[in-house]
Amino acid sequence: MSQWGHEPRCFSSSETCSCALFFSLPLCLFLHSPELSPAHSASGANFCSPPSPLPIKYRHHCSRSFRCYPEGEKMEEEYKREEGVALLVIVVLATLSLASLFVAFSYYCYISSKVSKHLKSLKEGKSEENEKAAPFGSGSSSGAGGDGGKAPVVVIERGLQVFNYKQLHLATGGFGKGNVVGHGSFGAVYRGVLPDGRKVAVKLMDRPGKQGEEEFKMEVELLTRLHSPYLLILVGHCSDGSHRLLVYEFMANGGLQEHLYPTRGSCGGISKLDWDTRMQIALEAAKGLEYLHEHVSPPVIHRDFKSSNILLDNNFHAKVSDFGLAKLGSDKAGGHVSTRVLGTQGYVAPEYALSGRLTTKSDVYSYGVVLLELLTGRLPVDMDRPPGEVVLVTWALPCLNDRDKVIQIMDPALEGQYSMKDAVQVAAIAAMCVQPEADYRPLMADVVQSLVPLVKNRLSKRSSSCSTPNTSKPPAKPE
């Protein structure tokens, strides 16, 4: 062991230079100092023995750190400062990362809480709406749902109740023949009673395929957005599997056609509808068409307006029904839409039947035919009539503008119930409505304005006659 306290080691010249580069230039001075022993300074020689002690003037170079030099101290301070800055940056970035994670987690918790509260309020609101809007099945365990004592769930969609087939099957007594109250373009109509006691009319679609589906969608769409006291109210609908059903308010007196042409009963085929009731029905039906033509944009063309589609309630107030064939008209004044010819024989306007050009004036023609039915008590097409009288319009039109001939075409059941002036005025309105040229037909708004005074006058006369005792005999009615 040497006097420096470690085992002697031999260094090659290459190792010497490496050590010099690592320990800085002063070490090289130490290794190659001329004051070293000659044995140690020989070029390429191995140092196999410890070096001789350095002179005092070189001993301050022997330290392996840079503390001995001002440059070394500055570098060390700079390294420490850079380490401190790096550590500070790392700490700041870590703090920011933690803060970001905390903010993100807090925001997530806030959104989750808000969404859950919103969903909960929606569920509560929907359950309350179902309870308020639909008492359907609230009473009996044998309700239309048939769930063994559970009240059936009633779904409200756009203001309409959505039924399933089982509910309506039970409400109509299994769609029995005894509950059939009529037939429409859509299918058979059945009388039904909901568990809450409401009477309804259920129309069962008997037209499979695309046409039936289109009619169903059209009627639901129209009656959802059309609201008038002169249009039949749609209560709900059913699209359960292949079944398509419409549920309407129940009209106790059925269709106008049934009262104009009774075929059995004590009346012996003579209508019991008096003049005042017929004029009231004519006015209310006209108001229904006026709403469709004038108060809806684009206008709605009914396309199947006829006496069987005018329904009557307990007081014989009229409402227009059956919108399965309805069509949206043109927004342009005098515009038309081209479509295939649909409707009922005897009610179809001639220009529509020939060319398929459909306008609101096509409905005006159909209304004129109904007005002729109210005046004459005859069917639009009656094959049992003699030649020349089979088609109502063809037979009646030449007489409508002749005061003397008007009395000849009037329904015998109305004898003594009307004034000649009123009959001539109504006949003139009907004549204008059934003109062969569509441009010569009036608007439904004009028709309404013409009928209003007639109905008001009759009602005022009726009220005055009721207040004054009448000792005269009523006019005799034909047997």
From TrEMBL:
InterPro entries referenced in this protein's UniProt entry, alphabetically: Kinase-like_dom_sf, Prot_kinase_dom, Protein_kinase_ATP_BS, Ser-Thr/Tyr_kinase_cat_dom, Ser/Thr_kinase_AS
Keyword list, A-Z: ATP-binding, Kinase, Membrane, Nucleotide-binding, Serine/threonine-protein kinase, Signal, Transferase, Transmembrane, Transmembrane helix
Position of the signal peptide: 1-30
Tagged with keyword NADP: no
GO function terms (MF aspect): ATP binding; protein serine/threonine kinase activity
Segments of this protein annotated with the region Disordered: 126-147
Keyword Phosphoprotein included in the entry's annotation: no
TM annotation in the entry: 85-110
Residues bound to ATP: K210
Domain Protein kinase: 175-455
UniProt similarity note: Belongs to the protein kinase superfamily.
Protein name: Serine/threonine-protein kinase PBL7
Natural source organism: Canna indica (Indian-shot)
